[in-house]
Amino acid sequence: QAYVSYSNIAALTHLAAKPAWEITGTLDDIKIWTHEEGDMLSLKVEMQVKIPSHLAFSLLSDFTFRQQWDKHFLTCEVLQAVNEDEKIYYVTSPPMTGHKPRDFVILVSQRQPCKPSEPYTVAVKSVTLTSMPPSPEYCRSEILCAGFQIYSDSNSSCTVCYFNKVTSGVMPYLAANLTGSSKSIEDTALECIKFLE
Question: What are the residue boundaries of the START domain, all occurrences included (predicted)?
Answer without folding.
Answer: 18-166
